[in-house]
Specification:
With 397 residues, the chain is α/β, with parallel strands linked by helices. The chain has 14 helices and 13 strands.
Length: 397
């Protein structure tokens, strides 16, 4: 007997990163030509030693590390985020406008659950982050793709033409996953104004904010001034992840910044699916925010150096075209007469390189997706990047 399956799940694609891992399952790679894995944008190194020591200290000596905590997160962490983000963005964020989640993906699912249900529509720029699309598919929410063209920068004017009576929100990711581009502040302001005028939520996922080339509190820079608007919480929702900047991927800590009224609805979701975020992970995130500012700045400098290496490498790689590059990602157009999903499988066997095809980030049948590839370069050092380009240059279909 076959147990029933929710039709919405049957219509949802399998996780792309897990699919790509199956392409290398059972394969071996020569010691002098190891696999270059640029498929996933997650740190592979452990947190810095002082943070690991703080986690160990909390695990050993703080009884609260092993108990349920507040559904919306530790008050001290919520307050720290409010204080630091207010300073970073030149605005005013209160502690009760911050919620902590089990990673940024849960933050997205939680906030979207309060905004859109089956039959509703949400506008998502393409290429999109596939987990966002997967959540909408599982919930019966219609994803309305907003084509960003060769610039990978969405247009508020184009988005307005897609709004219907079923539209509930517009989702933006900056720096972008998968495109790598940093959305200009004026673009975000136009989307804010559009959403406010049409009564929609503007979701801004800033998972990679710490690696934005414009974001440096020390230098007085900021990627946008949305929080400087005193009425920001009538429209704006910001999402963030501690996984990247502090290498806390396994601890699953993310955040939502939104109106306190909206977070009261989010609390219903979080209490149902997780009770509370990881206490130990939150303690690590708080310690990191309070003690690792300079270390994070060094991490940003390293990622920006790798970004430069990717930009220079593609400028010299014949036939390939770099569409966007920033944070952890380069998004490129390949020159070959084959679809990107077939090409990426070939690159595993012929070049020992694993990356994700644009077909995983575009609607089914997208001609653009068949020409595009995402390269997550954050875990590849300068020597590895140089080797990546040598292998790509030598590839012959």
């Amino acid at each position: 007997m076959t147990l029933p399956l929710n039709p919405a799940f049957a219509a949802t694609e399998a996780p792309p990163v897990m699919e790509a891992r199956r392409w290398i399952a059972g394969k071996t790679f020569a010691p002098d030509r190891p696999l270059i894995n640029v498929s996933q944008a997650a740190p592979v190194d452990s947190p810095p030693l002082p943070l690991r020591q703080a986690l160990a200290e909390a695990a050993l000596n703080d009884p609260q590390a092993h108990l349920y905590g507040p559904v919306l997160g530790l008050p001290d962490l919520r307050a720290e985020i409010a204080t630091q983000f207010s300073a970073a963005y030149g605005g005013t964020i209160a502690a009760d406008q911050v919620a902590i989640t089990q990673g940024c993906n849960q933050a997205f699912c939680a906030i979207m659950s309060t905004l859109a249900g089956a039959g509703d529509e949400v506008i998502l720029p393409t290429p999109w982050y596939f987990n966002h699309k997967m959540w909408f598919d599982m919930q019966g929410v219609t994803t309305v793709g907003l084509d960003t063209g060769d610039t990978l920068i969405p247009s508020a004017t184009a988005a307005e033409a897609l709004i219907t009576e079923k539209t509930r929100a517009i989702v933006l990711v900056t720096p972008n996953n998968p495109g790598g581009v940093e959305y200009p502040a004026e673009v975000l302001a136009k989307f804010r104004d559009l959403c406010r005028a049409r009564g929609l939520a503007l979701i801004v996922d800033e998972t990679y904010r710490d690696f934005d080339s414009r974001h440096s509190v020390e230098l007085g820079g900021r990627p946008h001034d949305l929080f400087a608007d005193p009425a920001w919480d009538d429209t704006l929702v910001q999402l963030y992840s501690f996984s990247k900047a502090y290498r806390l991927t396994g601890h699953r800590v993310g955040s939502i910044v939104a109106s306190a009224t909206r977070l009261a609805e989010v609390e219903k979701f979080l209490d149902t699916v997780a009770i509370c975020p990881s206490q130990l992970g939150q303690m690590g995130a708080l310690w990191g925010m309070q003690n690792l500012r300079q270390w994070v700045a060094g991490e940003r400098d390293e990622i920006l150096a790798r970004r430069r290496a990717m930009t220079e490498g593609f400028a010299a790689l014949e036939g390939w075209r770099l569409l966007g590059c920033g944070a952890y990602f380069a998004y490129v157009e390949h020159p070959f007469d084959m679809a990107s999903d077939a090409l990426c499988k070939r690159l595993v066997d012929d070049c020992a390189v694993l990356m994700l095809p644009g077909t995983m980030f575009q609607p089914d049948g997208s001609a653009a997706g068949k020409r595009q590839i995402r390269i997550a370069f954050a875990n590849v050092d300068a020597a590895g990047i140089a080797e990546l380009f040598r292998r790509l240059a030598a590839f012959r279909p």
